[in-house]
């Protein structure tokens, strides 16, 4: 994938638009293998429906999942950690991700509840990263 490309789509169907975008970018060619663990990281900082503009539409994530599965990728997870003080589990439910998880058989991981470890970020700086995120071979940040 050419990281200098900007692709713009207009429309009202998030699921089909995401699938069209992924096809235009040929995302499947960028994923190392069919056995790669793919992590989808939506933006669920708070437990508010996507119509408020605060979170990612679950239909966008559904489109990504459908696209990946249509291209033979089955090892897909959704991982998220809401803003400090908010509940990721509540955000998953309120934002429609619990339903997406069930519909597509893609597990949800609450990063607030996952084990984390410190990693060297260069220049002597250490950052704490959820261990599960470090196991993901390809991350789609939405």
Describe the structure in your own words:
By secondary structure, the protein is α/β, with parallel strands linked by helices. It has five helices and six strands. The strands form two sheets. Strands 3-2-1-6 form a four-stranded parallel β-sheet, with helices on one face. A two-stranded antiparallel sheet has the order 4-5. Helix 2 (58-70) links the parallel strand 1 and strand 2. The longest helix has 13 residues, at 58-70.
Task: Give a quick set of tags describing it.
four-stranded parallel β-sheet; two-stranded antiparallel ribbon; 18% strand; 142 residues; alpha/beta
Question: What is the element layout, followed by pairings?
Answer:
Elements: H1 14-25, E1 38-41, H2 58-70, E2 76-80, H3 88-94, H4 97-104, E3 108-110, E4 116-120, E5 126-130, H5 131-135, E6 138-141
Parallel strand pairs: 1-2, 1-6, 2-3
Antiparallel strand pairs: 4-5
Distance between the termini: 17 Å
Over all CA atoms, what is the radius of gyration?
Answer: 16 Å
Shape, principal axes of CA atoms? globular
H/E topology pattern: HEHEHHEEEHE
What is the total tally of β strands? 6
């Amino acid at each position: 994938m050419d990281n200098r490309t900007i692709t713009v789509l207009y429309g009202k169907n998030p699921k089909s638009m995401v699938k069209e975008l992924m096809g235009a970018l040929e995302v499947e060619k960028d994923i190392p293998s069919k056995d790669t663990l793919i992590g989808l990281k939506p933006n669920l900082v708070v437990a508010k429906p996507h119509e408020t503009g605060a979170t990612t539409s679950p239909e966008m994530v559904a489109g990504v999942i459908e696209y990946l599965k249509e291209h033979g990728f089955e090892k897909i997870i959704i991982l998220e950690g809401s803003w400090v003080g908010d509940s990721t589990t509540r955000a998953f439910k309120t934002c429609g991700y619990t339903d997406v998880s069930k519909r597509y058989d893609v597990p949800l991981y609450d990063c607030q509840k996952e084990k984390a470890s410190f990693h060297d970020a260069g220049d002597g700086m250490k950052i704490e990263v959820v261990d599960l995120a470090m196991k993901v071979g390809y991350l789609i940040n939405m």
